[in-house]
Amino acid sequence: MKRLTLSLIGYLFLSVALAEAPAGYPFLSFDKALQQAAIEKKPLFVYFGRYGCGYCEKTNKEAFSSKQVREIYSKNYVLAYVDAESGKRLQLPSGERITEREVGTRYHAFVTPVFTFMSANGNTLYQIIGVQRIEDLLSADAKVQQHLSQVNKP
Amino acid sequence: MRFYNTYRSSFVLLLVAFTVQFQAQAQGWKFSPAINVTATQGAGIFHHVESSGRRNIAISKNTVAIAWEDNRNNTPQIFLASKLLTANAFTNEIKISGAGEAYEPSIVALDNDRFAVAWEENSHPYVRLVTPAGLGPTLRVNQQSSSQVSLAVHKQQLLLVYSSQNSKHPRIRFQQLEIAGQTLRTLQDCAVDVEPVKEDQSYPTIISLKDALIVAWEDRRPGHTIIMAAQSFQKSPCKFSKPQRISAGRTGEKRRPSYGKGHGVARVALAKYGTHNVLAVWADKRIFREGYDIYAAHYQANNKTLFGLNEKVQDDFGSVAQQWHPTVAGHDTGNVVVAWDDDRDGNANIMLSWLEDNQWSDDFEAASATGPGEQTHPSISLDEQGNLHLVWLDRATPGGPTRLRYAFGKR
User: Fold this and answer.
1) Taking CA B90 as the corner, what is the angle to CA B89 and CA B95, rounded to the nearest 5 degrees?
2) Residue B77 — very low, low, confident or very high, per pLDDT cuts 50/70/90?
3) B201 FRET partner, CA 20 to 30 A, in A95, A142, B13, B245?
């Protein structure tokens, strides 16, 4: 049992250390997230990270670990994670086949992490770059929600 | 008097700057107007030139050939177009792949207007010859799931590397194929790194010298992506040296970062130049605020360290811009040219830099591959006379349909 617990802790640590999408969030691949966003008529929050990214790891530990951030982001957005160095293939609604790295190129993820808020059709609404704190993520959400409420006014 | 001296100094500086700029321009490349590689383009059609090692154009004797993937038949397939070097248009367009989903073709020139093309189809690597006599039979080179094929040639042998997906972590494999007429036969097949693979190996490319062959690839073994290389000798090509890291770590760091394992790199390309020189180029994010920059390292024959110190290829004006998709071509005379796409002018254009007196030239815009819209994903080759042949993707709008464009450059 002790061994299993240690293995689980090790696995969780490894997941964070390799700077993948933060645990406990419903992150999808970019193409699936676009489809989901179209169905739910919700904006996207796209996390551009990469394998071994230090500032991604820091943001995961210090900001995405917040229950408040998790609840707000899971509720307000369809979440996508893109490994900006990966050759994983995706299919966009336009029919274009594209790799995750090329999605990063298109959305100017020249550093990592980059967090891009997008409309359901993939247009950039707002972008924040680099390490984020809890208050940065909450503030960015507030700005995007305010913008959307103005745009969607009847 | 002080005003006069300042004025005179400024004038001299301006004159020097103008002269330097004029000289740089005079020594640059003069490009032909761009032409379409294929007439099949328009809404819903997307071309890709993204082979591992960025080898999508090759020149054999009098013929230039370009291999790419597009979705004209509603599934990704591989096509090749060719023209005589002296012709003004591409005419001979043929489908290379079968009916399956095919990706990332790599092309290499053989002798006498002949070429070999390798690609991934239904998750397996394939290769065939394209000659004036027609298409050779298709050879599936591995029964395991594989991708990211790259080709080189040595005498009457094809040298092929790919990323085998047959285990938890992809591994780079090598095959030596014998060319007999139109057909190909496997001679040797082996892993490049014989040690158990603990993290992903991907995007390999290969180059052949008179007596040696060199393989480079992306490797995630330190917990972040680095560029690694190994070499073997033509007499026993499957006996690879222990892999060595090419891409260096960040310099000037006084302590290990608290988070993460290291900076990112991506997509290495190799080219031979001179009689025994090889240049490796890749995108490198060691100066993290600048994003990816273009870095290179030279192969060192007869040295324990396979590749020398890393060099930044782009000039300082590129620091504030984004660079993507580096590629390289070399010539027997010793010329070597690097190309990439770069948004320093506000939109993506193709830039070049080349070695002159062991220094990288100022970055030079390939005039036919600049302007409104996006010009990206270059692949280049030098012909016997040292002229540059360039293919790239052109888009009027981000995410819009693509055009495959070609231009010819002279110095």
Assistant:
1) 165
2) very high
3) A95
8 Å CB contact between A79 and A147: no
pLDDT value at position B167? Answer: 83
Radius of gyration of chain B (CA): 22
Contact A51 B262 (CB under 8 A): no
Tell me, yes or no, if A124 comes closer than 8 A to chain B by beta carbon.
no
The residue range of the domain holding B293 is 2-410
Residues 6+ apart with CB under 8 A from B99: B75
Share of residues in chain B with pLDDT > 70 (%): 92
Beta carbons of B404 and B38 less than 8 angstroms apart: yes
Report which residue type is found at B221. Answer: R
Q: How far is B404 from B36, CA to CA, in rounded Å?
A: 6
Structure tokens belonging to residue B160: 């092929």
3-state SS track over B162-216 = EEECCCCCCEEEEEEEEEECCEEEEEEEEECCCCCCCCCEEEEEEEECCCEEEEE
At A146 the pLDDT is 95
The ipTM assigned to this model is 0.87
Question: Taking a C-beta distance cutoff of 8 angstroms, is the pair B40, B70 a contact?
Answer: yes
Nearest beta carbon to residue B76 from set A19, A97, A108: A97
| Rounded Cα gap, residues B400 and A96, in angstroms | 9
Taking Cα atoms as reference points, which of B34, B38, B44 lies closest to residue B399?
A: B44
Q: What is the pLDDT of residues B126-167, one digit of tens each?
A: 999 999 999 999 999 988 899 999 999 999 999 999 999 888
From B203, B260, B289, residue closest to A87, measured CB to CB? B203
How far, in Å, CA of B171 to CA of A147, rounded? 47
What is the token pair recorded at B302?
A: 């007869």
**Nearest-angstrom CA–CA distance, A61 and B404:** 44
Of B22, B76, B62, B146, the closest CA to residue B387 belongs to B62
Beta strands in B263-373 (DSSP E): 265-273, 277-284, 293-298, 311-312, 323-330, 336-342, 349-356, 359-360, 364-365
User: Do B148 and A95 count as a contact with CB atoms less than 8 A apart?
Assistant: no
Which of A60, A61, A97 to mutate to test binding with chain B, by most B CBs within 10 Å of its CB?
A: A97
Q: How far is CA B57 from CA B54, B65, B177, B324, in A?
A: 9, 6, 21, 18
Q: Which of A50, A61, A94 sits opposite B264 (nearest CB)?
A: A50
Q: What mean pLDDT value characterizes chain B?
A: 91
Six-digit token string for A59: 């943001």
Under the banding of pLDDT at 50, 70 and 90, the label for residue B401 is: very high
Residue B367 DSSP label: G
CA-CA distance, A138 to B208, in Å (whole number)? 54
Chain segment A29-75, per-residue pLDDT in tens: 999 999 999 999 999 999 999 999 999 999 999 999 999 999 999 99
CATH number where B149 lies: 2.120.10.10
pTM, 2 dp? 0.90
Tally of domains within chain B: 1
